[in-house]
Amino acid sequence: MTGRLILLRHAKSAWPPDVPDHDRPLGARGRRDAPAAGRWLRENKHIPDLVVCSTAVRTRETWELAAEALAPRAQFPVAYDERLYAATARAMLDVLRETPDSVRTLLLVGHNPGIQDLTLRLAGGAGSDALLRAADKFPTSALAVLTSAAPWSALTSDEAHLDDFAIPRG
Fold first, then answer.
1. How many CA atoms lie within 13 A of 77 on its CB side?
2. Strand partners, 107
3. CA atoms within 13 A on the CB side of 84
4. Which of 33, 64, 65, 132 could form a disulfide bond with 141, CB atoms 3.0-4.6 angstroms apart?
């Protein structure tokens, strides 16, 4: 099986006073950039079979805006998983390993530094241009697209190839 994993860092959030980190919404720039991420996915024909999203408000809003730009009025299967909030790469990998083998394209919406660390951990060795850019900086709304021949349940470090790294802006 060759699976595609798309890792999306949430769009730029706001910092309203007295709002817990988990409840921070997107800021104005984030509301512009999240749809750009969806358009990038559509233009590159990266349509997820399943989306796994952190429960934080900013990740949920990022996915909602990206999904509308990706395919207006489409319904994507989404699992909101609290384990992704502030998760390490290792914790995210544990969540990914629970993905059914029937899922060919999985999109995960999460937070840094976990998203960047997971990208680097899975892509490992070869220093492609995309990998060098992802290692240098993984800003808000950035997307990493990886492929792997391993089943989701057996995904480990250095198992994937980083096919693309993009930073869509609205």
1. 9
2. 6, 51
3. 27
4. 33
Separation CA 79–CA 34 (nearest Å): 19
Identity of the residue numbered 23: D
| H-state helical runs in the chain | 28-43, 57-70, 89-96, 114-123, 129-136
146 near 119, Cβ under 8 Å? Answer: yes
pLDDT, position 112? 97
pTM (two decimals): 0.96
DSSP element (H, E) containing 50: strand 50-53
* Two tokens, residue 128: 């492609």
Distances (CA, A) of 2 to 19, 56, 106, 161: 41, 30, 12, 11
Listing from the earlier edge strand, what are the strands of the sheet with 3-9? 78-80, 50-53, 105-110, 3-9, 143-148, 161-166
Q: What is the block-wise mean pLDDT of the chain (170 residues), using blocks of 10 residues?
A: 91 96 97 98 97 98 97 91 96 96 96 96 80 92 95 89 93
